[in-house]
Every structure is written in C-alpha cells, then in structure tokens.
Amino acid sequence: MSFQNQPTEQLADVRHIKEMMERSSRFLSLSGFSGIAAGACALIGAWVADRLIFKAYYNSYTEAGYSNESFVNLRTNLILLAVVVFVAALGSAFYFTWSRTRREGTNLWNKTSRRLFWNVAIPIVAGGLFVLGMLWHNEWQFVAPASLFFYGLALINASKYTLTDIRFLGLSEVLVGFISMFWPGYALYFWAIGFGALHILYGAAMWYRHERKAV
Predict the structure, then answer these.
(1) Which residue range(s) make up the domain with 41?
(2) Which of 17, 102, 111, 167 could join 159 in a cystine, given CB atoms 3.0 to 4.6 angstroms apart?
(3) pLDDT values of the chain reduced to their tens digit, one per residue, 215 residues
(4) Alpha carbon of 49 to those of 75, 95, 143, 170: distances in Å?
(5) Count of domains forming the chain
C-alpha cells in the first residue's frame, strides 16, 4: 500500500514546492473585494462628477462657453473629487488586502509586495504628472484616455509580481483608453467603465476563483 501511495505523496510534495516558489516570487494575497470596492468608489465618483458638470453647464454655460470663474471652480471641484476617489479606492483596496493577508497568516509588507508596489507606483506617478500637465494647459480631451493608458500599463507591469490575471485587467484598461480617444465627449463614461465596471468584474472573478473556497 505504501508503494501505491508514493506517487500521490510525491505529487503533493511537488505541488507544495510549486506554491512555495510562487509565494516567494509573487504577491498572491490580493483580495477580490479590493477590486470591487475600488470599482464602486469609481462609479460613485463618476456619478458625482457628472452632477458637477451638469450643474456648471446649467448655471453658467453660454454660447461662448463657460465663464472663467465657473470653469476654474469646475476644474478645482473635479480635481478634488478625483483625489477623494483615489484615496477612498486605495484605502479600501489596502484594507481588504490587509484583511486577507491577516486571515492567511502572511506578511503584507515583504520583499515581494515592495516590488509589486514600486512596479505599480512608478507608471501611475508618471501618468499622474502627465495628466496634471494637461490640466495645467487646460487640455481636458485626453485626460481620461491618458489615465486609463497609464493605469493599464501599471497593472501589466505589476502582473509579473502578483496574480497573472491582473494582466488581463491591465490590457482591458488600455483598450478602453484607446477607444475613448475617439469619443472625447463621452470620456466620463469610459472612465466609469474602465475604473468602475472593469474593476468590479475583475474583483468578482478573483474572489470566485481564489477566495470563495476559503469562506
């Protein structure tokens, strides 16, 4: 009987070694709820932005366009809203990922997660500076495509150090950003699709594939 069980035991040992190697080189504790929460924050932010734009349009838009004062106020409000949404999405993503690492008994901040952080942060910071440059020059048309492009590239870059599934989310963000370039008047809707709907779909899929059995 021991000889019959030996191949099964060896297979289990190989699977265990493989999992250990993956955990040493990849951060595998990203929570699906992080994506869902981030997507929900983005959708709420897109709705508030739509209300702000509608209000500014209704109150001050003329054939000559927005008045200087109303345009400055609208730009300031939208930038502040973007900061709030970003902080809320990042905070919720951190919380759910931290909760998962705590349940699994792993360390959130280790060598692998630090590499993941820097590979996400560098493209996002570069994209943020690029977007701020466009806003400085009052170039609004391609703010949404640029943010989607850089964010998608950050996810693709980070996929080397976490779940490979995140690469597909990154490619989807780049695709949505590319499409939105041709319909600049619907930028807010593409922004909601990219940062909102795709995140929720990705988060739900990740939870179903990697966390459902642990609940």
Answers:
(1) 30-214
(2) 167
(3) 444 555 555 454 444 444 444 444 455 667 888 889 999 999 999 999 988 887 776 666 555 455 666 777 877 888 899 889 989 988 988 888 888 888 877 777 778 878 888 888 899 999 989 988 988 887 888 888 999 999 999 999 888 888 778 899 999 999 999 999 999 888 899 999 999 999 999 989 888 887 776 55
(4) 10, 25, 14, 24
(5) 1
